[in-house]
Amino acid sequence: MPQCSPTNKNKVYVDNYYNRKHNRVGKPLGSVPISRQERVYKDSPINRKLGRVGLKWENNQAQGKSHAELLQKLWELHEDDDIPDEFVEKYQDEADKDFIQTFHEMRNRENHIRKRLEEAPAWDAHHHTSKQVIDKYRGKIIKYDQLKLVDKIGHGGFGDVFAAEWIDDELVAVKKLRNQQVSKKRLQLFEDEIIIFCKLDHPNIVKFLGACVEAPNLAIVMEYMDMSLHEALHIKSVEFLDVEKTSIMRDIARGLAYLHDMKLAHCDLKSVNVLLNNLPGQDTTMSEEPVLAKITDFGLSLMKSDSETSGSNAATCNVGTPRYSAPEVLRGEMLNINQLMKADIYSLGLVILELLLETIAFEDLSLLQLRKQVGENGLKPEIPDSFLKEELEETLCKCWCTDPNDRPNARDVFNFTEKCKQLYVES
């Protein structure tokens, strides 16, 4: 007779930091669920400016977000519910569909982490990829059958991202490529690129651990991070302190400066590609460490060095996400590596502005409007009057200079963030 899996009736909350924090050690699993507390926006410069002090944090209409109503309905669902059919029928816009999928993936990820923290004492100390595993196995070819894919936690044009268990049940992120039909030459290039990425070593760059190089399971294995800046701002509505925003801003600029020092252009810098650990106010945050930001998804970056052959320094066009793209990219200009790094600076300014205002620049513009208004007419992002400190606003505006040569480099922006002590004008 097959042995049945143990039920929650036979399990209790183990003695670890997470369960002690919620005062439920020894009680039956499921008997003390963690409810999402009703939160309101605190009194801060940005919340006063946006007129939302005291409002429920799910209610983002005051912020002018296009997905505010949808987000509120999604949060009202029970955490174990699937997305209802009526949602799929009502929200037919591609942006809405993408938002629903992102929300669902985020909830899957949180539920998985919460379950591990509830049941496994070994996870008492962390739920990120440990430094020991990163240092020991980094740069290896990884067999796909060594990975246990748990939940889908992200998606994009490249494919899907999964939370997975690896050696000693370590949690990693696995990016499985959608295109599995590749030539031997392309496969070798893929392997060579991963080896280079595994050698990148910086606290503000997501670490590549290795890759699965056999079709139909071509995949990249990376360290696991809690969530993206986009999710934190626009789905979870995490309320960052000014000092935390300054730290995130500094981390992003420092990470990009490192990539540029390595002659790597990111080519798709956006809030989705900034990942965070140690977020404030989250019930699965176990670390007392400060919030940490890392850049990811530079896997399709252009590794071109001026010292290499002309073929490797060939120009390219139409890269990145239009809403975060520089005017010259939107115009479809052919850009070399140095010009692509200047385009990265434009994107960096937009990501920092999104962090500070908690809204996405040019959110209401279509692709055609972006190309016309931003690419051809030089439309710049709007900053409310007397809102940001003058030096900060000036730095951002320099990032958006029409002439790319007038933009600062990433190291300049990082140096400014090091000195930046105040973000907002005091009201």
TrEMBL record:
Cite the GO molecular-function annotations of the record.
Answer: ATP binding; protein serine/threonine kinase activity
Taking every annotated instance into account, which residue ranges of this chain make up the domain Protein kinase? 147-425
InterPro entries, per this entry? Answer: Kinase-like_dom_sf, Prot_kinase_dom, Protein_kinase_ATP_BS, Ser/Thr_kinase_AS, Ser/Thr_Kinases-Pseudokinases
Which Pfam family, giving just one, matches this sequence?
A: Pkinase
Q: Read off the Gene3D superfamilies from this record.
A: Phosphorylase Kinase, domain 1, Transferase(Phosphotransferase) domain 1
Listed PROSITE patterns: PROTEIN_KINASE_ATP, PROTEIN_KINASE_DOM, PROTEIN_KINASE_ST
The UniProt catalytic activity note for this protein reads: L-seryl-[protein] + ATP = O-phospho-L-seryl-[protein] + ADP + H(+); L-threonyl-[protein] + ATP = O-phospho-L-threonyl-[protein] + ADP + H(+)
The keyword Chaperone belongs to this UniProt entry's keyword annotation = no
The entry's ATP-binding residues are 176
Q: Which domain of life is it from?
A: Eukaryota
Keyword annotations = ATP-binding, Kinase, Nucleotide-binding, Serine/threonine-protein kinase, Transferase
The record's similarity note reads: Belongs to the protein kinase superfamily.
Would you tell me the protein name for this molecule? Protein kinase domain-containing protein
What species is this protein from? Biomphalaria glabrata (Bloodfluke planorb)
